[in-house]
């Protein structure tokens, strides 16, 4: 080749320098430079040595790997060499993967030589061969891939009793493991299917982690709830028995009639007593001034003729198994002085031997009735 010429990868520059682009192993050898003019000729021999190293695997050449069904498998392959080796994989079905993956797919080859097999199944088991090659040679390693499966297991107790108070929210956990990953659902005592991330009846919700949430359950929500964890190789179940207890509150008198009341003959008297409390509702009892107890559940309503002996303290009692409360009402009976009708001076004349009627008519007050009322508020 003469100066200022280029053929493919070879070039002779104007100053006589011989350039070889993208040098290959076959370019090694002796190159002769010849210079001549009218006065003579000169020659120079150059021996070109191309440095190259055959690939060498950096990992063990034989390896066994086990992954669970449905998981991804990462098969590593690292090699050194000069020039840098090209990595390719031969799959169990004898297909070859050479190109670096630039999009998501089941089998992907990364730039570092690692092969990924996504969402493994039983057809993916077998021997995978990694081949590292360059111009100086090749090296190989193999990975035997096994696919394993595990039936679901639930981490919590398989039977649990859970008791909460009325108005509290309930959380029922169900942590399941397996390969492939199990699908978790709940079944209520009514047979309703409860799947993750959906509300049922406005108060039942299953979180993605398998926890069942019941918002402020009442007694009608009590019963057995079953967690079912399912995958392709098995099923596991767990049952939670939910009991809802109403919150107990002590008996407490909320209101009564005025603590001191004057009652006149001819008037009307009604004594009220209202109380709250639950589990159970309070029993209302009245104590009369003479010590007589008058009961009423949930209401006492008693009437009788009011006389002076009914004057005194009336005590209302409200009681349930949690506690007792009482409140007194004092009644004073006010009597009017007698009034003679037609209170004027008169003369009555009666014949001898007859019967004399001397009228003295009194103006009497009306008979008064007393009523006791007790109400247990819900």
Please describe what this structure looks like.
- InterPro entries: Ig-like_dom (IPR007110), Ig-like_dom_sf (IPR036179), Ig-like_fold (IPR013783), Ig_I-set (IPR013098), Ig_sub (IPR003599), Ig_sub2 (IPR003598), Neural/epithelial_adhesion (IPR051170).
- It comes from Sinocyclocheilus grahami.
- With 378 residues, this protein is mainly beta.
- It has 4 domains: 5-48, no CATH class; 54-148, Sandwich (Immunoglobulin-like); 152-245, Immunoglobulin-like, CATH 2.60.40; 249-337 and 368-376, Immunoglobulin-like (Sandwich), CATH 2.60.40.10.
- The chain has no helices and 37 strands.
- The strands form 11 sheets. A 5-stranded mixed β-sheet has the order 7-15-14-10-11, with no helix packed on it.
- A hairpin with a 5-residue loop joins strand 30 (283-287) and strand 31 (293-296).
- It is rod-shaped, with a radius of gyration of 53 Å.
- The protein starts with a strand and ends with a strand.
Could you name the key traits of this structure?
378 residues, mainly beta, Immunoglobulin-like, five-stranded mixed beta sheet, rod-shaped
